[in-house]
From TrEMBL:
Signal peptide: none annotated. This is Nucleotide sugar dehydrogenase. GO terms for molecular function: NAD binding; oxidoreductase activity, acting on the CH-CH group of donors, NAD or NADP as acceptor; oxidoreductase activity, acting on the CH-OH group of donors, NAD or NADP as acceptor. PANTHER family: UDP-N-ACETYL-D-MANNOSAMINE DEHYDROGENASE. Keywords: NAD, Oxidoreductase. Transmembrane segments: none annotated. The keyword Oxidoreductase applies. It comes from Bailinhaonella thermotolerans.
Amino acid sequence: MAVNVAVVGLGFVGSSVAAALVERGVDVVGVDTDLERIAELHDRRCRISEPELPELLFAGLDSGRLRVTGDYDAVGSAEVVIVAVGTPVREDGHLDDSQLRGAMAELAPRLAPDTLLICKSTVPPGGTRELVAPALERAGLTCGEDVALAFCPERLAEGRALRELREFPVVVSGYTDKCATRAAEFWQATLGVPVIPCSTLEAAELVKMADNWWIDHNIALANELAKVCGAYDVDVLDVIKAANSIPKGNGNVNILLPSVGVGGSCLVKDPWMIWQAARQRGIDLATVPVARQVNDTMPHYTVDLIEAGLRRLGKDPAGAKVAVLGLAFKNDTGDLRATPTKPVVQRLLAAGSEVSVYDPLAVPAEVTATFGQAPAATLEEAVAGADCLAVLAHHQQFHAIDFTRLKDLVAPSCLVIDGRAYYSREKIEELRRAGYTYQGIGR
Ligand SMILES: NC(=O)c1ccc[n+]([C@@H]2O[C@H](COP(=O)([O-])OP(=O)(O)OC[C@H]3O[C@@H](n4cnc5c(N)ncnc54)[C@H](O)[C@@H]3O)[C@@H](O)[C@H]2O)c1
């Protein structure tokens, strides 16, 4: 498609959107203030481990369809600018808008006339109107006339980003109806995905809040259900499968999966964003803190399982070795942001356990910075002498682990903790036959 697009912020979302657009033949320039990230891409290195992402970015760079730079002047020749900088929250749940303010201050004076500006960064209701629009106005631009301002929340999940960008409907809203129409036409012409129009910017902002509020809440329910199932010696996965079989609303009951905990860059902060936004209008959202708290207990629940399992095997957790396999916040990503595996490791170390950490997807320097210790170079090194193998992120690379072969390396009577692998009944039997003791979350 003959359109020049600038993507501002080449983190997880910006890189994925840029890659998806380049794949569809769009010319993209990516702008990021992190010059190390830009240099890495120039050297054909990508610190984000997301299926297909490095290949698509490198192919785009090689063909010249994708350019990456730290120079904001590049946005001046773009017809469409997509903003995907980070929007964390502060301790009190308020938006930390520093990246967004910084990006808008650089962008606004450089925009060509009639640019379509699409914000993808997650903001609380009112964020686009109160933060982005004024930055444009300050640069002398009239929203809806000199610049078409749209908000289209990003809803993809790490590990499946490219697949979802090719398929997911895009929620579209605009400062005016005309802005929204232009954004809708852009997504249809480029990614070719359906669009879901929202009547106002605030409605689209709330769609994103609602999605992540629901997911966090649903996982909290699954986690508490797992705790009860564990206490009654029932497999929580059997219960969820059966419970999910009745129709409700326009789908089925859909209880998600319990795990070692919730992490990443969205679910731990977006619920707080809506909680704080509601408070500002005098509404107390009681469910948000409860779900957050439940999900935050899961790393500790997991450590309790590890320690109880070790004691049942006659081992003192102090002095026992635990190999944590999979450090990322979920399966098939190397993202360590707010990973629930960190409190697991911290508590084990505090209890005097020896801990080895291993994740083939995570950047080793980030592992060292996050966990205070270097990762094992190989699976074999990680598990050597281990009294417990805690599989806390079950990447594709771990599907082929031959536990029978590892038996010669681990300590006698080794515990396997399933934090997110959801091993099948057959696999659990196989583990038992090989001499391991299995323990899952609610299983
Ligand atoms: N990660 C996800 O799975 C996901 C999913 C949906 C939505 N989101 C939302 O998308 C947004 C981006 O998330 P992310 O995970 O990609 O964040 P990220 O932290 O991975 O990336 C942000 C990027 O923006 C760059 N940046 C910061 N300030 C800048 C500036 N002034 N100008 C140019 N670049 C700047 C940073 O260097 C970084 O590369 C957030 O609002 C997030 O909530 C994230």
